[in-house]
# Entry
Amino acid sequence: MLFIYKALDANGENKEGTIEAISIDVAINSIQKRGLIISSIVPVEDETLKHKFFFGKRVSNKDIVILSRQLATLFDAQVSALRVFKLISAEIENVVLRKSLTEIADDLQAGSSISKALSKHPRVFSNFYINMVRAGEETGKLNETFNYLADYLDRTYEVTSKARNALIYPSFVITVFIGVMVLMFTMIIPKIAAILLDSGQDIPIYTKIVIGISDFLVSYGVFLLAGLIVGLYFFIRYTRTAQGSFTFDGFKLGIPFVGELYRKLYLSMISDNMHTMISSGIPMLRALEITASVVGNDIYKQILNESMLAVKGGSSLSNSLSQYPEIPGILVQMIRVGEETGELGNILKTMAKFYQREVMNAVDTLVDLIEPVMIVLLGLGVGVLLASVLMPIYNIASSAG
# Structure
């Protein structure tokens, strides 16, 4: 059960946060062990907390990058971990992040490790982030670890945001085009169709098709829209199942041009994750497990999990990855070279940079390709529609003349 509490510390300062415990008595004991005097404590329903989080201010990638830089700077200055989190939590503007950092500071004061305290806030800190911090604690290089994390998040944000933004423009244009066409078919074409039918002139077959589509949308458009909404609802539910998510992720990789962009994006993330963790001293098996959990595609997640089992069974990483067509030969060969020379971390760093450049180039190529294609298709669509209704009107005017 989750409880929200308000308390006073030894200096008389107000403290508030959440604590999870099997009962309110256990929660009170845990808070008192932190040296706090409880002023109020109430249970919170999970749904209430979810609702609050959903409508509250989210923690962005930029917030975590800035936080990581601040942590690295303060650890470089030999400031204690407890003092670091107290200092930063007092200055953070994001309400959700400030609350999390305050609770982390309380956990540190109670004797918790940094990684364990961070793990209580999975909505803010990813599994990858927590394991990197754990590695930094074990090696005594927390300042370097936080700098690694900030650099990694910067690179990831740059690549993923560019790929995402490349798909926003065509999606917007297509949506607007569909909206304009629907308005023309339901509001303009019916009025023109009435004029054409009243004239008694022969109507070309292509004009009849346009009028037929218009009649259908006017008569059954509401039912079609309802069907699309219901279909979208069930499609989203299906993609949230294990089988649906796996199928949809495979479909994304098979889309012409866009699928290749996704493929390079995931390969970039895998290479960068593996390089960052191996360079920080995280064992290969653990690095594969964490990368699989954060890669964001069920196809590659399955590949990494199966490769982890193969490596655990004695196979090399390059041999296990070579079994999958989704992993290009150049990446397999480079990993093999890294294994043979003992420079796997540096090799993965090189491949991460290579695929990041490939993603950037693919995005630029996709945008350059989409714009002229969309202009041609939109022009053809509007031209055919206008010709279908204007040509008969021109014929009527000519006959009347």
Observations:
- Residues 253 and 259 are 4 Å apart (CA to CA).
- The mean pLDDT is 82.
- The chain has 16 helices and three strands.
- The two ends are 84 Å apart (CA to CA).
